[in-house]
Amino acid sequence: MDVPTSARAYGWLLGGKDNYEADRQFIRGQLKSFPAGLDITRQNRLFLYRAVRYLAETGIRQFIDMGCGLPTDNNVHQVAEQFAPDARVVYVDIDPIVLVHGRALLANKPSTTVITADIRDQDSILDHQDVKRLIDFDEPVAVLFLSVGHHLPDSDDPHRVLHTVMDRATPGSFLTFSQVVCDDPAKGALMTEQVTSAGIPWQTRTPAEVDALFTGLEPVEPGLCNLVGWRPMDLQPPLAPVPAELTQYEGASQRDRSIYEYGGILRKP
Question: Which residues form the signal peptide (predicted)?
Fold first, then answer.
């Protein structure tokens, strides 16, 4: 409770209530240094809706959400089921509080489950009994790493993490990815230092460094980009209101365009 976690901190930025003072203090400090963080977190959550809708309408019926975070409105399974009622979803997160809330949300829902696991240990995830129960790797699958790429520093070999699951997936499967990037390497390094010093693994990358992670996969149009520009929609479900004490940071991403959430969807040929 006295150490911030990414799931709870991220949840507070989305208007969630399941957080502690350590999480809120961490966010307050981060937004003072990088005020665009509020906007880009929420932009990433809006991207989730567009990405899952695209995948469901493309024919995907099974999803693995790696590093899912705390449940909020329009989770992956809720969006998928709007467009594919027979969708199956596995949520994965290392934070035990996510498991508690996820199990409560998904009680008596056999097509969706949540497991506690470390996304760096892909073999354990793929061999988990609940993953084997719901996911058939002989059929196309969508694997989501949304706003978790920055939690995989180079020392964790993110290329291995991302490609372990995609190597097992059949052709026609999709990888959906996003992470915080910075066009200014010095500013990105400062962000990395500040977040890491709070006990949260982090590495801010440049867009080119993110692109290098995806050898062998084909970006879906419009390719990897600032998520604001990935297939924007005039109408999509709104997010919960911004917490009152953070409203001063709304719109900050318009004033500092060097930091943003970068990603998109890639297809295994």
Answer: none
